[in-house]
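User: Is it possible to get a 3D structure for a protein together with its bound compound? The compound here is flavin-adenine dinucleotide. I've pasted both below.
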Amino acid sequence: MKKQKIIIIGAGYGGLKAVEQLAKSKKAEILLFDKHPYHYMQTEVYDFIANENDFAKITIDLFTFCHGFDDNVTFYKEEVIHIETKNKKIITNLQRYSYDYLIIASGATTNLLDSVKGLKEYSHGVKSLKRALYFKQKFELSLFNKIEEEGKQCTPLNIVVAGGGLSGVEIAAQMASFSNEFYKNNHFLCRKLNIVIVNSGEKILKGVDNRLVTQSINRLEKLGVLIKNSCRVSEVRKDEVILSDKEVLPIDFMIFTGGIKPTPLVESLEMPKDKRGFLQSNEYLQCLGYSDVFAIGDCTSIKDSMGNSLAPTADISEQMGILSANNILSLIDGKKLKKHNISSRGLLIAIGRKYTVGKLFGLYFKGYSAYILKKLVEKVYAKRLAYISYKGCKKIFS
Ligand SMILES: Cc1cc2nc3c(=O)[nH]c(=O)nc-3n(C[C@H](O)[C@H](O)[C@H](O)COP(=O)(O)OP(=O)(O)OC[C@H]3O[C@@H](n4cnc5c(N)ncnc54)[C@H](O)[C@@H]3O)c2cc1C
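Assistant: Yes, that's possible. Here is the predicted structure of the complex:
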């Protein structure tokens, strides 16, 4: 039987899970596309910023990763520009490729709102590795510059984090914790850091278990992070931020984690989408009206069995990756498709160095033990991918 050609767009958490699952089948030829040559572990950015990880530890090379399978997976470092669903083809910046089945797993981008003056010019995002790297360097340099001020009048370092979701909270806590230790361990006198989280909702961490929210707020307060709820950023200037309540906050820099939007590829597609522009799919994860096209991860929206929207996380993306792959294999074999029963298996939130709060399979964890658990989950994930990559590397050089 001729192998079925399956294209996956996006080598994020969802895309890689789909690759692993599909690669087990002898009937599938898998073509993985990403505009970057690496898989970026966004969930570990908090440690990257705090210098616990360098960028080699939060990336996996996709060429060697794909070589780690039985010759049925090929990686293409190409950006997909468009999809011709009628002709079953994708168009990249280099050429066209045809598919039998397609998985769109292109994630999302930071929603730098056009309506907020100065946001694009003066704020940083962390959804791409390049931006996270730039921001990390800027943060360290700012701390260094403050030390240079020793002996003179010591001015505080002012940081605003716009967005009180998971990424904003983790990054604010990590920066506060890192700089507290940095100044303390080195006995520097000039040690003032002001971090403010500007959050549009009534509480930070919307949609997260209440107990975890309370624990996170307590910990952030302990770290000296100020939270401003029911407030938005109205304008960003080079050295200040104007809030919706007219307060003006001085900034050395601002990080924007206030929401995500679909990628340009998804924006370009004329397929059914929700109000925010994310792809709509059915209970089998097929895009509405397309039996051969699946959408998984942050590029789509999904509800649990109770009809509640599920927050976009790596955990949800991975579960969707496995199910979409299994459903494609069922289509190939003429078997019945499986409906999704996806729900959050848990969440571990890093709130500063070596401190985590979380809930996993219904159990609560807090403090250092939770931190160890989070590290374990991350290590297992990274080691598994690194092992496949290592096998690929050995194959290439043998
Ligand atoms: C700072 C931060 C902390 C987080 N912490 C957690 C956490 O603790 N736990 C958790 O579960 N989740 C966390 N998340 C959320 C999690 O990272 C995302 O939900 C997850 O990455 C989504 O996976 P995905 O596969 O849908 O997309 P992504 O992982 O974003 O991958 C999408 C891929 O598609 C590629 N791509 C996009 N467009 C194209 C194109 N046109 N052509 C080719 N390639 C393309 C991109 O280069 C990328 O590699 C965090 C996110 C951030 C930013």
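The domain at 119-258 is CATH 3.50.50.60 (FAD/NAD(P)-binding domain). The chain has two domains: 4-35+78-110+261-344, 119-258.
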